[in-house]
Amino acid sequence: MYRIRFHGRGGQGIKTASRILGSALFIEGFEVQDAPRYGAERRGAPIFAYVRADRVPIHERGVIHQPDLLVVADETLLAISTGQVLEGVAENSVVLILSGRPQSWWERHLACRGRMIVLESSRWTNGVPAGAVCAGAAAALLGTVSPRALIAAVEQELGDHDPAVVRRNRDAILKAYDAVGSLRGVVTAGVEQTSAPDWVEVPLDAVAIGAPVIHGGPTSQLVKTGLWRTHRPVIDSKKCHRCLKCRALCPENVITAAEDGLPVIDYDHCKGCLVCAASCPLKAIRVIPEAQAGKEQDA
């Protein structure tokens, strides 16, 4: 069985990538599962999706913990420990990374047990989602999907979109497929991991015991949603007139006022929606990439 796991951010086409790959494998005669995993997160939040494919009925269910192919559409996720991107990667796993850095850089800086393959993101600059590029490359690495099946899968999954969008995604997928053509079939199918279940007797509890009870405090404060952010709003104290319009319009209520009236952003929970920057009448809030913010802090 092939087990493929995609990691990316909301808005990068990760769910669509898994569906395109799953549909292409189905067209090639495989039994397939494909599913995204995310909750109420917004654009920019870390998400993942997975695909299983086998020639026989699939009895496994749930998240893939030991992928044969791991696809990383956003390299910034590798620096977030809570993302658990490399979870379950073994020596026989293949790790595909879409990155602006060369493979030699990743080999020096990333401790990865599996075989690493880096696809240069600079080759795709026409606005095609990263997920589409990764779907094409993943199909080639599996070695079981033909370009014909990929084209049919794109038409099936994106058929309701504008023809120009379908054509742009199809061309990007085929280009990525060809880009790793020399590595076609490098992914090997994993062994069966399912086993007979252990039966557990669940007694019927009284209503007072069985009803849901919340014992903890405001646990949402412990969830660092700032990890979803790809761009950071930065307030210029010299331009700011302390009107606090940004505070009033912040949908997450992460902007407070200091004693001198200057707005302060809670970066642990700011999701980077940038409503504050768009609404500031004096343009006193600039927007910088999160990677640049980290470099400025280090300096």
Automatic annotation (TrEMBL):
This chain belongs to the protein called: 4Fe-4S ferredoxin-type domain-containing protein
* Xref: InterPro entries: 4Fe4S_Fe-S-bd, 4Fe4S_Fe_S_CS, Oxidoreductase_gamma_subunit, PorC_KorC, PorD_KorD, Pyrv/ketoisovalerate_OxRed_cat, Pyrv_flavodox_OxRed_cen
Domain (4Fe-4S ferredoxin-type) spans: 231-260, 261-290
> What Gene Ontology molecular-function terms does this entry list?
4 iron, 4 sulfur cluster binding; metal ion binding; oxidoreductase activity, acting on the aldehyde or oxo group of donors, iron-sulfur protein as acceptor
**Species this protein is from:** Syntrophotalea acetylenica
Write down the Gene3D superfamilies for this protein, in alphabetical order: 3.30.70.20, Pyruvate-ferredoxin oxidoreductase, PFOR, domain III
| Superkingdom | Bacteria
Q: Which UniProt keywords are present, listed alphabetically?
A: Iron, Iron-sulfur, Metal-binding, Oxidoreductase
Q: Which Pfam families does the entry link to?
A: Fer4_10, POR
